[in-house]
## 1
Amino acid sequence: MTCPTKSDGSPTLWLVTGINRRKFLGAAGIGIGGAIGLNAVGAMASGQLGGGFWAPAVASADTVAGTIAGTTLEQVAVPLGSTGYRKLTAGAGWPVIVRTELAAAKPGRANTRRCLSSIVQMTDMHILDAQSPVRVEFVHPLIGSASRPQDTLTTQGLVSLVNRINQLRRGPITGRAFDAVVTTGDNTDNHEHIELEWLLTTMNGGALTPNTGDPDRYEGTQDSGVGLYWNPEQRTPGMFDDAGFPVIEGFLRAALAPISSPGLDIPWYSVFGNHDDSVLGTAPSGIGPITALYTSNLKLGIPSTQADADAIAQAMRNDPAAVPALLTGLTDFGWIVTPDARRAPFTPREFMAAHLQDGATGPGPHGHGFTAESVETGAGYYSFDISPGVVGISMDSTNRAGFVDGSLGAAQLRWIEDTLVAGSSRYYGTDGGMTSQQREDTLFVLFSHHTSDTMDTLLPDPENPLESRHSGAELIALLKRFPNVCAWVNGHTHDNRIFPHAGPTPEQGFWEINTASHIDFPQQARIIEIADNNDGTLSLLATLIEADAPYASDYSDLSQHGLASLYRELAFNDVNTDPDRLGTPEAQNVELLLASPLR
């Protein structure tokens, strides 16, 4: 493998990170340290968000009346110490913040409320073949997601999250048993068949071996001796050594060892993300030379020049169609690896079909939202009953032409409108006029990978080049016409963020709930309990949860449980980590009020 060197022979780390690590370490006292006084939380929470000034309050008994054990209401990971590589420990739980931008919070609502639905959102698991030939780890100082020190542990981390959900079984505020789990995209990292197999096995239950290529040895970057990467079993001068990353004997063999998953106990539904569709989550699929590279014996190494590396990083951001040519044009392949046909990339139809295969049902439903018709038409969107009177709408916001961000096709947007009309007692036209129908209202929760502000790539779909594409702003305008839309739940950003979308009338508002990933710290999922307060308001009670893994374990413990603990610790210490992913208190544990459309 080629790498520029200094005069002393050590690697020159010429790719410069854009993340301010000091900002991260310094933020621990507030953003990461969970033991924040309630007055401090209230002071931090007031400010400008979503276009309106507001001052949310810390929740009282009107909100928290259930069992908080096992959630971030009870405790949350916080670092020990203030500098360098840091171990984690249990810190004080985060409070519930009551947000009233869309409706006032009335006293006594905890005594009158009735829970209608309890949902768990998992997102951005990025189940990852860390030894894949089609990875560009060398750009990670510019694009942090290209390589992470925890990349070999995604399956162990996901099993620990499955365990946590199975243990909790019900919402912490209302005590309602979970009705469904929804994954909001980027289920896999590089849309390989083997990544999808590992995902389905972990979610449905079974044994797997998170290894590709040579069955007896690791063939990735983490034993390369190059300081651009963490080399866990040897001291290697470079950025990770400078950051104090440990040497852990036997780490790689343990990471590739067979593991087992109990599978979820709760029905789960699957949503597309850009990493489930595109090369590296960015470049369009189906380009011959790149497809062949997935299963070849050549693994990409570090380009011999800064210009080559810069060109690839910039193309990933701004011109994904150029990425395949840049990659296949490299002359400096890192090393020879063992080819593996299981690494072949899947198509969107193959992704859906895999969910329908024998053995993939697990707790159900069969197909996890997808059907034989989905596979035939290629339409990756569907609706499903979450609970009586509450319906989920799963959207496919990926853009088949590439790019990280997404959009919706015209047919899908019309289908969403038709679905909402069919479940509404009244709705508003584009001119503001209201239509009434003789039917009861269904409450709707929409799920997508992309957020409203990342659904702005309007390139034509290669399969339907004449179909218009539509943005997140257009979807917001549509949803505001339907008072029975409660929430739009999404991922993609790897951040905890929540936005109110106020409509022309109070009942036309809804909440957008964006949750951090399960690969980057803080590695959280979110419970959303929907309650009718029987006072003219609904409450969306959103609580973050962490995986069932120790906050710290001894490096001699390389069991499946110990590796799941390391998965979180390494993510926290990643040199490219971003403290903003935690979100502010008003995007963590919250009660979101909105006007009830129910009569």
## 2
Amino acid sequence: MNQLVECVPNFSEGRNLHLIRLITDEIEKVEGVRLLNVDPGKATNRTVVTFVGTAEVVCEAAFQAIKKASELIDMSKHKGEHPRMGATDVCPLIPISGISMEEAAEYAKKLGARIGKELNIPVYLYENAQNNPHRKNLSLIRNGEYEGFFKKIRQPEWKPDFGPTEFSVKSGATVIGARDLLVAYNINLNTTSVRRANAIAFDVRETGRVKREGNPVTGKILKDDKGNPIYIPGALKSVKAIGWYIEEYGVAQISMNLTNIQVTPLHLAFEAVCNKAAERGIRVTGSELVGLIPLKSLLDAGAYFLKKQKRSLGVSEKELLKIAVKSLGLDELGPFKPQERIIEYLLNDTSTEKLANLSLKDFSDETASESPAPGGGSVAAYLGVLGAALGTMVANLSAHKPGWDERWEEFSKWAEKGQQLQAALLKLVDEDTHAFNKIMNAYSLSKATAEAEKFRAQAIQEASRHATEVPFKVMELSLNTMEIIKTMAETGNPNSVTDAGVAALSARSAVMGAFLNVKINTKSLLDRALADDLLKRGIALQRIAQQMETDILAVVNSKI
């Protein structure tokens, strides 16, 4: 899918799972839409739904869900901790790929106009879809909430962008917009005091707190020359926060919206709240995510906490996630399942990683079967994976070696590089088999007409070129791992020097094995200049790998 838009509507129902299901059913009925997450909250009486697709189908799914919510949810009977103004309280469009923010904003306007016209619901635009700078902020639009909007909607400055100027008793109003990715994040406190939670929220949120004369809580609010309240800024940029009490959990929380996780990432928001809470004699006990989060946010958090411990960052993705979840306390209120909460994992097509997901026995059995693939190319790539993994292991053991504490960062950098090479080579295990299958498919194409035969010949050449480039990439990456391995043999933990030796043997075999595939596949290339260049470069890479293997084994043997 070239174009990808995420939509995260918030519905004012978090307790009746049947009603929630009826709403999400409308989303799933729209072809081309993928429902990623449904996150109901009892205390907030609110459900955050996440789905993706192209802009057209996402807007259709959003409309149908908003329509169903307006039929099922009666706002006159709604109670919940979270600020709200409508059955569908807010519905943002978030451009992920293949679409600009400006384009997403135009789709938001079209969606808002349709909701106002066909559903007769007052609609306000916000963030990038709103042209009026005084009406961009969601909290300003929603101020007064459902109960206050019967009067607010009649004020000229709060006339809806679309739909009637009469407030709907049953459905309330809806806010539609286009914005950057936002992370909704709640931090748990060991207190039940909303006042103290709010004090911490004011300490950290970007807008901070109003400046008062004398007593910072009860003193007279100070204003500027224009009569606007003067604010003391908080510690964190691009963060909105309030304090509330969640009866379901029996604790107060800091409820945060991280509007730009490049400016203030998850872990820094958590740390800031921990520090401000501690100043007030309060302890953070954990946290929870509402909806989904990008993988990088949690990987960065894991690396941050490992670095604080002066431990190697060159660990697996799974281990980084584990450190992040434990450090942030994301599993305090319930199990945190990365496969259900991380955007990339939900969008990942695992069908392209068949071999990489097999057990060792299944991989060897699959290789030994009568099928020609996986074959030597995939095995060569996996030898490269093993070489990189062993080199990384020695780096991590060196970073944690007693007495070498001052060198942890030196070895951590090598381990991080090893992890990157290992991940890249692992993808090539499957890619080599895909390349072989692509050649077979090309040869099976029809030759019934001159045009068909021309198309077949072109497909064979494209497939052959790809099948040559994949093992050549294996050669390059595997040779790169030998730099790590050589350094670890020379300067790493001496107790693991034989592991470095085995790593060198694996990496050299990967280079030589992959070159066999390069040589046989270049025979099919009509572009002889390309074929000759790959062969020439391949010979050079193989020679370097053999020499490095000799050098590394000499070091290893000198130490054992």
